Amino acid sequence: MRNAENWKSFHVSVFFSxxxxxxxxxxxxxxxxxxxxxxxxAGTLFVEVVARYLKETRAEQGPVxxxxxxxxxxxxxxxxxxxxxRSLREVVERVARDAIGDANHLTHPMYMGHQVSxxxxxxxxxxxxxxxxxxxxxxxxxxxxxxxxxQRVVRWMVQLAGLGPRAGGTLTTGGTEATFTxxxxxxxxxxxxAWVNGVGANAPVxxxxxxxxxxxxxxxxxLGLGTRQAIAIPSRxxxxxxxxxxxxxxxxxxxxxxxxxxxxTAGSTATGSFDDLEAIGRLCGDRGVWLHVDAAHGASALxxxxxxxxxxxxxxxxxxxxxxxxMMLLPLSAGLLLVRDExxxxxxxxxxxPYLFHGDDxxxxxxxxxxxxxxxRRADALKLWVALQRYGAEGIGALFDHLxxxxxxxxxxxxxxxxxxxLHPPEANILCFRWxxxxxxxxxxxxxxxxxxxxxxxxxxxxxITSTVLGGRRVLRVTLxxxxxxxRHVTRLLDGLAREAQTLL
Length: 505
Fold this sequence. Notes:
By secondary structure, the chain is an alpha/beta fold. It is built from 17 helices and 13 strands. The protein has a seven-stranded mixed sheet, with helices on both faces. Helix 12 links the parallel strand 6 and strand 7. Helix 8 crosses helix 10, helix 8 packs across helix 13 and helix 15 crosses helix 17. It starts with a helix and ends with a helix. 40% of the residues are buried.
């Protein structure tokens, strides 16, 4: 007992001898740095670097990407954590030299790679405002003006899609989150008690086209349905075969198999193809099946007078994934999920958090945190709002038309050459093609030659493209996402690839 008392006394004495002070004085040099870094002069250092990058790449100065290996780039940043700070000018200079210098320069007209845009300038500058405000769009009280902006932007997009007065939505990080959330809402309709009891042993199925984005099967697995419940529908002419879909739905109706959703694609990743939304929409509507349209890439055609027809039937959708950071040319990230009935989106997240969501029903509709995976939600709606204010829906639609027209010019240029083959007519701004050689090389060798050709061309710095496998063959693939890319650039692409091919051989 005495030992216990002595031990207690020791603890008390130690506690009081090592008491935590009420406050830690901030070092004067840190205070000074914070003040300096808050000035217009400090901001100008960053602005000048970005403006120089935009100017040089738009003028086609310097390589499109890097010739360095992954290991060489990693070695550049292999250093211990800084213990003390440096001048802001030194830091910005290193950003320009070490980060920007060997990055992929998407604003260069010869970058024709992945579905990531050369972003609109006004949206680029808006990023600093978003970060400066740092409001989280979880609840209205945390972001009063920006929540209102997100609500307004969502209403604009709902009206473009023709989803009706009960529709709504939310911004997401991109199409993957949007599709996941949409299928979560579809699950809530099909299995209302799944949130509490799980999906059970007899899970419903989800049907999707064989060229659907991988996020569809990922969502099916993550929702606990199991990939066995993911039913791929074969394609015809690179689009979901509506006849095959009809047969599957009829079979499941006869068997008593529940169908949770059908996922159609508008602007597939591989070829930019659009499923027949009108036919699929009528089919799902007649059967009461949730139709989700992954239009992450293609929904921006709604802004285009020339290409809006490709989205015909979108009004039948129960939910739509749309990425303005693709064909509306916004900086990452800016995704959208739209739903025909806003209440279905709320039902997807059957939770209460009294420390956040404590308002009445009208307030809950405004609070975006009740219908999103994220609580800390960045105000990406602001850059979408700014882009529409600055360039207008018609202006952004005209950029969509331009990118599609240049892609068609590339297709036409390929058809005039003997050393290349176009594998499909472009429906938007994506095209797959193949180098064949002249005279044509043996089929058995073309896969490896096209793979190596793409790697060599990208390392040259003259341009940057991607590749994929289509119909079991390795092919070259371009996605035009830069308004400064014109017909002369796609001609230069083909000439550059041909030169690299001759060097390769």
